[in-house]
Amino acid sequence: MPITEPAIHALNLEAAIAHTPICVPPHTPVNEVLEQMNRVKSTSCRLEDSASSPLNLQTLSSCAVVQENDKFLGIFVERDLVKLIASGKSLEGITVGELINPSPVSVRQSQLQDIFSVLPLLRQYHISHLPILDEGDRFIGLISTETLREILQPSNLLQLRQVAEVMTPQIVSATPQTSLLDIAKLMTRTQVSCVMICQRGDGKITQIGTGNRGDLKPLGIITEGDIIQIQGLQLDLSSTPVQQMMSSPVFAIGAEDSLWIALQKMQQHHVGRLAVTGIRGELRGIITQTTLLNSINPLEIYKVIDVMQNTISALEAEKIELLQNRTTELEKQVRSRTAEQEQLIASLEASSQRDRLLAKVSLQIRKSLNLDEILATTVEEVRQLLHCHRVLVYQFAPTREGKVVAESVESGYPAILDIQVRDICFQQMHGIDYLNGRNQATADIRQAGLSFCHQELLEHFQVRASLGVPIAIQGDPAHPHLWGLLIAHHCNEPRPWQASEIDLLDKISVHIAIAIHQAQLYQDTQLELAERHRVEAALRSSEQLYATLAEASPVGIWRTDPTGKCIYINDRACEMLGLSRQAALGDGWLQSLHPQDRARVIAEWAKSTQFHTPFACEYRFCRPNGEVSWVFGQTLAEMGPDEEVMGYIGTATDISDRKRAEQALKTLNAELERRVSKRTEELEQTVQQLQGEIQQRQQAQQELILVKERLQYLLWVSPTIIYSCQVQYPYSTTFISYNVFQILGYEPKQFLNNPQFWWDCIHPEDQELVETGFSQICDRENQSLEYRLHHAEGRYIWVQDDFRVVRNAQGQAIEIVGSCVDISDRKLAESELQESEDQLSKFFESANDLIQTVDAQGKILYVNRAWRETLGYSPEEVQHLFVSDIIHPHCNPRYHQLLSTLNGDCTQTVTFELKALKSNGRAVFLEGRLSLKNEGNRSKIHGVFRDITRRKIDELKLQRQAEVLQTIFDNLPLMLVFFDGQGQIQLLNTALEKTLGWSLAEAQAQDTFVQCYPDPEERQKILDGIEAGTGEWIEVKARTRQGRELEAAWANIRLSDGSGIGIGQDITERKRSEAALRHSEQLFRSTFNGATIGLVHSDIKSQFLRVNQKYCEILGYSQEELLLKNCMDITHPDDVEKNIQCLKPLLRGEARECSFEKRYYRQDGSIIWASLTVSLVRQPSGEPDYFIAAVEDITDRKKAEAEKEKRDRYLTALVEIQHQLLNSSVDTDLYEIVLRILGPVSGASRLYIFENSHDSQGCLLTSQKAEWCAEGIESQQNNPNLQNCPYEEFFTRLPNTLGKGEIIEGIVSNFADSERLVLEPQGIEAILLLPLMVNGDFFGFIGFDNCKEAQPWDPLEVSLLSSAAAAIALAKERQITQAALARQLAAVEAATDGIGILNENSEYIYLNSAHAKIFGYDDPKELLNKSWKELYHPPEIHQIEQEVFPVLGASGQWSGETLAKRRDGTTFPEEISLTYIAGGGLICVARDITTRKQSEEQIKASLHEKEVLLKEIHHRVKNNLQIIHSLLKLQSSYTKDPLTLQMFRDSQNRIRSMALIHELLYRSTNLGSINFSEYINQLTTNLFRAYNITAHSRPEILINVEPIQLGIDTAIPCGLTINELITNAFKYAFVDGLSGTISIDFHKDGADTYELKISDNGVGFPADLDFRNTESLGLKLVCNLTRQLDGEITLDRSQGTCFTIRFQELTYQPRG
């Protein structure tokens, strides 16, 4: 029904009246009133104990009504008390009557119309409480802003406005230390109800005042109500700081939020004020409940309601018109229904066959990836279904040719499989059509207008009719690819193709396109996998290349684990340390640190490993040979894929030469320091003189700063902007006061730095005014303008700009000075006044009644819009009209007569109707009132009229109604008869007379009743119907006047006066139709029950009416069970809404039938899919009667489609995974990529990836690294039990099963107890685990959890997910390899030696920065793709090609020195190492050895000097020993004692053996060792001479000595031993002239062991003598010297005497 009243009128203003406020007499003390208000306020905090709303209680607690003897005197509010407190007066002895306003603002209840009559009063008088009085001035209640907001819920309007539009930007603020008394004074002075307690953003406290500073941050708020409550606590307001009593925190809102959000926050927190803050929390304004009410504009609300009313009215009219147009013919539907249903059943049967074929094709695609097999099966099935002679699949080639790739042909017709077809005409004419999705159906190729070549081609294959549909691959939806055609041929005769056949081929072509796309995806995946394997092999080869590069580098390189333990070191680093590689690993390298550097380096290294910072340090190494070298060591952290530190990689560069140069620089710096010190003393004297002058200048500057600060403070606190500018355009600003920031929000420098900035701030509409004013200033001296300036917050403010020109002594204008004052408030008041006048004018203009004002002479003074629109006059035409011009001439006398009744001085009103003339001359009827108003000597007649033309027209229609009814009575096709209370016929219509044959006169004169109904029973039916008069239809058999039998139906209605009306119709034809209908119904039932698809009849509420046997078989119910159910009872819940929506177009008459698919619940609980085709049967009246549905079971087809969709989904995901992994960088989180793609596709509840690791004992652990969870599934990412979990506790069979590459899959309830204890707490019902094999090792696994049902994964899913796991493992291998390569490349780039790689063409393909710098190049790119010959002169190139390359080709490596060429042409010595790369190419490591060569030359010179000196030393030692030998010999000549002589001789021989060593050393070219074979020969010769043994008397000496070199430290003790043992043999082995043999054997026994054997065949060593424990000096020396050699000595007495000594050469540390 139409809505005639606006919704806003429904608001009950009574609900906004608080009827029970605090009421007190005027003599009540203020303290008592305060206590009552605080008591109510505390009650409002307990909402559960109060029946009133919180806002109502808030209103009651914020005021008190003062009345005496039921007479209202005034109202006492919180603001009155705050004023009293601010005045400093005591509350004692003051009554409430002294504080109230003697003339309070109030309103009578009868004057209240709606809330919009209250809001203007609250705004006008700036009050928050409005008392309501009755006609006797008795208090009824009061309305406040809180109660109005409580009943007013304008959510839609508030949502359309933002807080920034209505907030109060001027904030009254105070510091937290301000006293409550000062706060009360501030409230009184500024007329506000609250003060914001703020702190500046920089931590400074603001001063008390008003402002809108951007650096204020709210800390709390204090309101008038708070002051009143505090006063009730008897606190000292002057000494209590506000921070102790303020409300904190302040509830804040953003300026961009809507007013609706502000209202909700106020209601949620039960507050009346919200702070408006910016994004940094700075204070921007405040919003209150009053602000919300002021934001509601009544006119906007009425406009919205008016639009809603018009819309609803239009909808109602449209609905009525639609119902009137919905008429149907039931008999026509009954006759056509049977034929339609038969056609429907036949079409459903054909549709079922086509769907089964589509399902079979889809299933074939799902089961196989073999495209040829799919196409062959498809064409065979299609040919059998279409009963045609040939079906084929034709594939287009990139050229104009094509090929038949699949064919099914009936025997007797030629096969064209694998035949290449070239049909240029066909592609030119139809290729684009096919690409656009058009089909080509040709019933007869001879009549289709085909080109001659195309027709000839078809006739060659005996084709007469052809049907072709495109096969388009939707790889790119915007550019589909036409792959080929699916074609059906009929050969022996023309054939018109049916639409269903075309549709079938169209759908099958889609499935074929999917199969082709699927096969292409599978092929692309295989190609990508092959490419991936190739890339991985290349990466591994590159890794080997960089490993070789690291080993060949002349820079020391090492790697450590995360704790700093060395795990790798190259040969160059071992050479620097002087240690073997094994000894340097772990912490071994620290032992080679110089003692003075060890503590510092260890501390820096510990700091680097602890905080993962780079390590860079210079320190010294002490080699075992005593050499000290300086190195520069640096390390970088190796980061893993998850940004964790995996270890450190470092390099060490030998900087010994640089350190020596630095030492020389230190000496030079010391001399420079001495000179600088002297110069500094001279400068200090000069500085002291300058400081005196600077101090004087600073005093003068301080005075200027004080003056400037005073002036800035005055300008800051001033509300006026002071400025000066140039007198010429663009009037550039030369000065502006800093308070421009307070007023406009801009910094002064913005105006000073940009001459155009002031003009950019001026409103575009005001710029011309300002330009004119400034251009005239020189003529007018001073000027005052009002215009708008743009504020930094985005709004405009009005300013009054007063400026004048300043002139110099010559009268020339030199500057303009001015001041600007903010006049926005004044402008706002003027705007509100104008708005009020505009609103009144808009009210008259928007009124629907005609309003006019005329003067006493009839001149029209004013008319409104409705007047002009109704009468058709423009505003210009109205200015010249008189009343007589618009009044119809027939009504002029009546109008003047009415005017004559309006006389006198008082205002009079008359009401009348008259006819007026429109501008086009047409007449309208008006009803209205005239009122006379005298204004001094002038009189005005005001008129308000309403157009009643429509009412007049309706009255005329009523007059014609009787005529219409009579016409209807006479012409109605139904028989009508009127009879009186006695049953006498009074009236009958023409239809009765024509049907029965009796006229009215004949019916009244004769007893026609018996003639018409000769059968008594029929007559009685009529009489009973007349008597009952209920209007029910009665069917009787009647006879006409002519004697014709007919069947009639009568309805008799008894009127209140006893008379009645009879309505009858001839139903003879209808009866015949009903008989035919029953026959049709019988035929329908036989068809219904015998159909091969399910058929259902249900009412419009889905209750089953009829079902056939097939439908019962589909659902497993009996007919009796289904007829007791509703269709929705067995429909799947998720499909109920879709079912309803599909039937709505039938009910609305928008469609004749609809088709859809849905799920049913069978009787056994299983779910099946069915395809439904539904139509609606309507009643004769057009109302819906019941539904007819044809139902077919499509469960198998749906399963096939689901399987295919699943396969496609998985294949698409796999392709995406492969694409992402191939394009991912080393740092990409591979796991996140894969899980994000696989999660939604797999249908699993949770996906996760675990990685393996080992603990310190080597136990295999696993940890979760990534996870994806479906919505509603609890994450296990932070489960500590899944980190570093031993397999033996977690899943004992995981390592053995997954480690072999096998999978684990199944229902968790079937697992072992230990496994279920881990899985069931996570809610896992079924699980699938797939191994990740990286580089052939068990790296981890990927898992899939099903937490919703115990449903295992089918083989297809397992196969496809296994492919994803394999892709992850390959990507992880590549990521690990790339990370290793990146680390090695970082080490190479950090090396100080030049490293380069050349290809098989001897061109550089890689160089590090050091390599380029060695040869004088800034960027390595300058040498890329250039030959190595660019860096050498021709002689060197020739030498390298002739000498180096042959060796390199034979051994694969070469190292040596060459002479290289720099970029500037200079040469330098280069140490170069070349390594051959398998497959072609070289690795080149180069080092500039210029410094080393210079050092070597110096060392060679030094070594030569040392060699000469050492030879001289050996010579002098030999001479000294020879002197001692001579002295002993001389001394022995003075004794005759044989024993003494023997002692002297032995000592001489010993000295001689030592001297012989020094003699051999200074004669040898090698000063470090002697040829011991030569030494033994000379030693035995000397001993022969010493003992005077001749060739005839001496024993034979057999010397078997290898040419062995021994150092001096080993040769001396070894020589003394030989001397003692040979001497002993001379003395004791051959007594009494016995001859014999002495043998000396000396050789190496093993790698570093020597064996000395001295034997003789003399008398032998005494058996009772222990050579180790004897008094013999010689044997003691032999034993001691053997121990000195760390050797072993043995004695063999079996064949004479044989001493055997085994020892190793001594290696002593150099003496420092």
UniProtKB/TrEMBL annotation:
Its EC number is 2.7.13.3. It comes from Laspinema palackyanum D2a. Residues 1512-1707 form the Histidine kinase domain. Residues 542-601, 734-781, 836-889, 961-1027, 1080-1150, 1380-1451 form the PAS domain. Residues 17-91, 100-160, 167-237, 246-304 form the CBS domain. Keywords: CBS domain, Coiled coil, Kinase, Phosphoprotein, Transferase. It is an enzyme of class 2 (transferase). This is histidine kinase. In the N-terminal section; belongs to the phytochrome family. It comes from the Bacteria. Gene3D superfamilies: 3.30.450.40, CBS-domain (3.10.580.10), Histidine kinase-like ATPase, C-terminal domain (3.30.565.10), PAS domain (3.30.450.20). SUPFAM superfamilies: ATPase domain of HSP90 chaperone/DNA topoisomerase II/histidine kinase (SSF55874), CBS-domain pair (SSF54631), GAF domain-like (SSF55781), PYP-like sensor domain (PAS domain) (SSF55785). PROSITE patterns: CBS, HIS_KIN, PAC, PAS, PHYTOCHROME_2. It catalyses: ATP + protein L-histidine = ADP + protein N-phospho-L-histidine. Residues 305-340, 658-710 form a coiled coil. Residues 615-667, 783-835, 910-960, 1154-1206 form the PAC domain.
